[in-house]
Task: inverse folding
């Protein structure tokens, strides 16, 4: 009998720190499985943002740097410039990438730095208790918008793929989700493509995962997948925005 | 015959695999792991066709599949 599906070797042999059903884990699993396929586990550096993504340090067996909040793209650009043979990627939440670190994200993208960015969009600041993020949906209740997000006061959800797609330099931009097996396979293909762009020296590659936060959304894991399908995906359409 | 192996200590009982399995192979029992999660179990292993959908959707990489 042949093993046809195995746990990526980049994942440590222990339970990870994410909540039950959190799709952060799913994104990390795909990244580890692609790094394993490309035989890059020994020559990659992961730059984690601040937020739930910091859980990766305890669950992934790769070199990693914990960056100041929001600054992974700047740190990753530096690592890549010092050590071009290293495959460098960042792993960031929406508060990290699209709020406090927006400038660093835009600048790295605009310079076309040859790094890969993984963006986990769970529509709130997960780690600190579910505050509103730039990506929070309209009317969505969070701990800082107890009456829901309203345009007049809080503006509108920010679409990072579309924003980055307005720049000239990025070479790959895609939005994926891990809500079912078909989408997980598409997401894995996008992660692979993003790393391939870096290996080919094409410049900035970006993959957004439309994700969940069952704990702060107050939903069961299964309900949170339904919420993604019904509420998040109409706001954040999936697809490849750029591939060149 | 195809089979799945679930590492109970990695499982957090999100039930994505239970929901996704087209053959209803997986379920939970009263057994819990060291973290207190009612981990997923192959309660109907003979029905497994080795499609690996359960392993694909498992965020915690707790399932391995043999065919
Ligand atoms: C400079 C600074 N400001 C604020 C914080 C507090 N803080 C820690 S995590 C976090 C939000 C992270 O949210 P997000 O990036 O969406 O990641 P998630 O936890 O949702 O994955 C904040 C504001 C901090 N650690 N450092």
Result:
């Amino acid at each position: 009998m042949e093993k046809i599906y195995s746990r990526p070797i980049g994942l440590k042999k222990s339970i990870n720190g994410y909540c039950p059903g959190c799709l952060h884990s799913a994104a990390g699993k795909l990244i580890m499985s692609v790094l394993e396929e490309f035989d890059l586990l020994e020559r990659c550096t992961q730059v984690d943002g601040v937020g739930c993504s910091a859980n990766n340090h305890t669950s992934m067996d790769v070199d990693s740097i914990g960056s100041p909040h929001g600054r992974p793209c700047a740190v990753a650009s530096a690592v890549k410039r010092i050590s071009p043979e290293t495959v460098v990627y960042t792993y960031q939440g929406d508060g990290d990438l699209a709020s406090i670190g927006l400038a660093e994200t835009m600048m790295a993208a605009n310079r076309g730095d040859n790094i890969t960015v993984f963006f986990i969009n769970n529509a709130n600041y997960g780690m600190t208790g579910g505050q509103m993020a730039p990506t929070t949906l309209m009317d969505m209740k969070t701990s800082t918008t107890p009456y829901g997000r309203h345009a007049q006061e809080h503006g509108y959800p920010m679409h990072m793929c579309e924003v980055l797609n307005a720049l000239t330099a990025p070479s790959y931009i895609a939005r994926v989700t891990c809500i079912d097996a078909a989408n997980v396979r598409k997401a894995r293909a996008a992660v692979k493509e993003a790393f391939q762009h870096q290996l080919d020296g094409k410049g900035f590659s970006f993959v957004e995962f439309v994700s969940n936060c069952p704990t702060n959304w107050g939903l069961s894991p299964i309900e949170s997948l339904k919420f993604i399908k019904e509420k998040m995906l109409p706001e954040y359409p999936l697809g490849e925005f750029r591939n060149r | 015959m195809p089979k799945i192996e679930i590492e109970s200590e990695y499982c957090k009982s999100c039930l994505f695999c239970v929901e996704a399995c087209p053959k209803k192979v997986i379920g939970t029992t009263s057994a819990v792991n060291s973290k207190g999660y009612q981990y997923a179990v192959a309660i109907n292993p003979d029905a497994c066709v080795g499609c690996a959908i359960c392993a694909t959707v498992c965020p915690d990489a707790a399932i391995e599949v043999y065919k």
Q: What stands out?
A: The radius of gyration of chain B is 11 Å.
